[in-house]
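Letters spell out the chain; backbone shape is given numerically. Take this protein:
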Amino acid sequence: MVENITGLLHQWQGGDLKAREQLFELLYADLVLVARNRLSQHGSSTLQPAALVNESLMRLMESDAGYKDRTHFVAVAALRMRAVLVDHARARAASKRGGNVEMLTLSHAGAAPGEQDMVYEVLALHQALNRLAELEPRAASAIELTYFGGMSREEIVLVLGVSLPTVDRDLRFARAWLNRQLS
């Protein structure tokens, strides 16, 4: 199955649209599960898992990423999911506030009810991850792949090309740093 997915990825990159459709059929359920896990951590949302996956796949089709294998594809899809979540949160916050949102702090989260909590949480996490990426890019990538991609430590090892102890150190550092930033 893994070889089949890798083969389909390479065929798609060669211009075979039928291979792309087969690939999406094979991986769609996995991506919906990742999306459902992301959205369930934030409570109710107007964004449904299928919509998150569909928008992410649309963005994937527009990119020229050279996918090596299934793990790399899912990692890129996870990053696209992050972008979709952030865009959705920005749009929701802007419509609630009556204008565009540039920067938010966590102080807004306590004053916002229900779904607004999720909106501010996603935006605050996005801003914190951007700051972490400036400080420690690999640690930021590891936490993105865990949080947005639902990847295991072993899968992150493959995507980042580092050892398991390195991934563990990066995740510990990133979690501690984010906890300090978001508290």
Observations:
- The chain has a mean pLDDT of 80.
- The chain has one domain: 2-182.
- DSSP finds nine helices and no strands in the chain.
- The CA atoms of residues 170 and 176 lie 10 Å apart.
